[in-house]
User: Fold this.
Amino acid sequence: MVRSGRVTISREENGEQVEVEVAGPGEPFGLIAEVLDKPQPNTVKALEPTEVYTLDYDDIEDAIGGHDQPAAKIMRSLARELDSAQEHLAEDELEKKEE
Assistant:
């Protein structure tokens, strides 16, 4: 999560880096990968002097009572749905560029 400053978030598409978002103070990045324990598909670069908080999802789950608690299950489920939606959007974009 960005504490201060701003970062640009990009990912590789068709061999080039494409900016997908800019995050500023209070905004998280990389949450889906952290929650699902997946490799981070994005590149994050500071646009100016920046401080970030490092969040560990396991610690967050422990703080809410463990991975069997409803809130933890909801967060994992939402992360899976968002991850799937992002994959479908990326596939659709690739298909449009190939047409």
Notes: The helical segments are 31-36, 57-63, 70-98. The mean pLDDT is 88.
